[in-house]
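User: Sequence in, structure out. Go.
Assistant: Echoing your sequence, followed by the structure tokens.
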Amino acid sequence: MSQPLGLRSCACGCGTPYQPKHPAHRYATPTHRTPKAGRGAAHGKAARYLLANLIDGTPCPRCGQPMTHAQRALGLLDAGHSRDYATHGGLPDRVEHRSENRSAGATMGNRRRLGLDSRTSREW
């Protein structure tokens, strides 16, 4: 018998619909999202505000291509930082294309791991 669309079946193979209290699902991945990297509620609130107040056609600060609400609905936009988050912290202050935001973060992280991008307040 097939399940109606939208219902997950039990992972343990018992054939029942997904039941959170079923012993096999006790340690299942939660369906709600938790704050990324422990950035907290204020960071999430600022990101949601920036994305909700996006003006269609605003150019992306990284590539210059226009950003739209359709891209936001598809999850193609992220809230970004004009100064790198790892060094300076703080709340997001602009909207960027997701792929470029993640690429810039990965590049910066890789450079810091290799010691190529040592941004400290002074030379030691």
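User: And one key feature?
Assistant: The first strand starts at residue 58 and ends at 59.
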